[in-house]
């Protein structure tokens, strides 16, 4: 029996030394120390021993068991340490390798120009307001003095939502004039930028969706001189102090008198020609149309509960894309909406 125990001890220690995984260790533990293990099998034979031999054998068995247990613990610690070392080695990160560069974006050129214009007007005391793009025909047309038969109401020009033509995608930001005036008393001084929609085919100068910036100033004693002052100040700021402007008479149903404002072409300086060729920027006109404007029509004022005898005001509406194209020297409107980063990165 003593030899048996010695044999177990020797073989166990050798086997444990070879075990390389936690599973192999557990396997050995069961085989050696478990209920059906080698030591238990030896202890079962104790009954055959004499009373003197029994405690000696018991002690020996216990010391073999203790030795195997100690070796098991020892091996377990070693295997865990080795596994951890291997994990750390395989997951090592070289913090000195340069990272993948992240390319930085920037504001869209349209947003840059819009921000510039907003800053300008806020500096002159204007408040920025926002309104719905899905608009009632009454705000988009009727209350702006645009009568039932007016061509701009045509279904071939305007996106309507229902057969009764009462709801539409706004064709201009001018309905914001009504929305502001019906809710506020003069003095009123607002700027309303936003998207507008028309049934236009996309080409170099047209898009079915584009942006306008509406301005409205109402108070006592407001004149056309105030209108010119505000707009000339804006254009000189945007296009430079030497920019040349002109006002031209025009007609809009919601202003009286009405005008359009043009800027002298920055490419041909008003001559309409570049190197003997028709100027491609202004198509030989010498001028580039920037916006429509005028003194708010008395019908529009009184329709919003503002007394036209006491108050007067001016309004203007400009195309943001057109402003951006002039400012950034962009010659095709579609580039603004394509969002090709090779184009956008130039600004
Ligand atoms: N809403 C006009 C358009 O889209 C532009 C315009 C003209 C706006 C005169 C105005 C204005 O406020 O007074 O063509």
Describe the protein in words:
There is one protein chain. The chain is of the alpha+beta class. It is built from twelve helices and eleven strands. The protein has a seven-stranded mixed β-sheet with strand order 1-4-5-11-10-7-6, sandwiched between helices. It has a two-stranded antiparallel ribbon with strand order 2-3. A hairpin with a 2-residue loop joins strand 6 (245-252) and strand 7. Helix 5 (109-123) crosses helix 10 (320-328). The protein is rod-shaped. The model has no long low-confidence stretch (mean pLDDT 92). Bound molecules: 3,4-dihydroxyphenylalanine. 3,4-dihydroxyphenylalanine binds next to strand 10 and strand 11. 3,4-dihydroxyphenylalanine is lined by residues 172, 174, 214, 252, 255, 292-294, 315-317.
Q: H/E element string?
A: HHHHHEEHEHEEHEEEEEHEHHH
Number of helices: 12
Q: Which structural class is indicated by helix and strand composition?
A: alpha+beta
Q: Over all CA atoms, what is the radius of gyration?
A: 44 Å
**The biggest beta sheet, please?**
7 strands, mixed
Number of strands: 11
Major sheet strand order: 1-4-5-11-10-7-6
Content of β-strand: 15-25%
- Euclidean distance between termini CA atoms: 93 Å
Residue share in helices?
40-55%
Average pLDDT figure: 92
List the helices and strands and how they pair.
Elements (H helix, E strand, L loop, with lengths): L1 H17 L3 H12 L4 H6 L9 H38 L18 H15 L3 E2 L5 E3 H4 L26 E3 L5 H7 L6 E10 L11 E11 L4 H16 L5 E8 L2 E10 L8 E2 L2 E2 L8 E10 L1 H6 L8 E8 H9 L4 H6 L2 H4 L3
Parallel strand pairs: 1-4
Antiparallel strand pairs: 2-3, 4-5, 5-11, 6-7, 7-10, 8-9, 10-11
Helix pairs in contact: 1-4, 2-4, 5-10
The structure holds 3,4-dihydroxyphenylalanine (DAH).
